[in-house]
Amino acid sequence: GAVVSQHPSWVICKSGTSVKIECRSLDFQATTMFWYRQFPKQSLMLMATSNEGSKATYEQGVEKDKFLINHASLTLSTLTVTSAHPEDSSFYICSADRSNTGELFFGEGSRLTVL
Amino acid sequence: GNSVTQMEGPVTLSEEAFLTINCTYTATGYPSLFWYVQYPGEGLQLLLKATKADDKGSNKGFEATYRKETTSFHLEKGSVQVSDSAVYFCALKTSYDKVIFGPGTSLSVIP
């Protein structure tokens, strides 16, 4: 069964609103989780590394004030897309490395559509 | 820096055809190598992995061998099925870096 779960799997919102996506590790504690963005027919773009109890580490070019990441517990990381605009529409995926071996477990993904 | 290169897609094959998706990498040290698969509308899942040179990863009829001398980790399957239609990502991880993904190769298998 799934070991990493995301919610919601899809969301539609109006431009200017904020949307929160949750990522949970189901049967292990994840001190680190990763947030990716995937455009149609393109590869995964790592947005940020979420660290439990500390600030997230953002990749170059990713606006930290736009994509707020909170990793308040060992099983939950959240990504909030603030003041969403149509260009933020995308497939957002989280993952966690259960054993720090590079073997990532991925959430189901969340498809965001901003109208 | 570390990087992964995959063959350009999309790849279209007839059912029961032989599949090869090439993957080469550049890395410092001795990375672990992975193939992930993304079925339509889903997140990624690990398909197979190899952690050291000459290891062969296998799963669901897919195989890939870690070739240090050619820095390659090509994915193969002897007879593809329609259900194998997906996007395949080659990836690597070294001890001190995050997982690096290739650009992905889209595979369509037609009956």
Helix percentage of chain A? under 10%
Low-confidence stretches of chain B: none
Report strand % of chain B. Answer: over 45%
Give the largest chain-chain interface (CB within 8 Å). A-B, 20 and 21 residues
The total strand number of chain B stands at 12
Q: What would you say this structure looks like, in words?
A:
The complex is a heterodimer of chains A (115) and B (111). Chain A has 115 residues and is mainly β. Chain A contains no helices and eleven strands. Chain A has strands at 4-7, 10-13, 19-25, 32-38, 44-51, 57-58, 67-73, 76-81, 90-97, 104-106, 110-114. In chain A, a hairpin with a 5-residue loop joins strand 4 and strand 5. Chain A is globular and about 40 Å long. By secondary structure, chain B is mainly beta. In chain B, the strands form three sheets. In chain B, strands 2, 5, 6, 10, 11 and 12 form a six-stranded mixed sheet that branches. In chain B, strands 3-9-8-7 form a four-stranded antiparallel sheet, with no helix packed on it. Chain B starts with a strand and ends with a strand. The mean pLDDT of chain B is 93. Chains A and B meet through strand 5, strand 9 and strand 10 of A and strand 5, strand 6 and strand 10 of B.
Question: What's the gist of this structure?
Answer:
The complex is a heterodimer of chains A (115) and B (111). Chain A has 115 residues and is mostly beta strands.
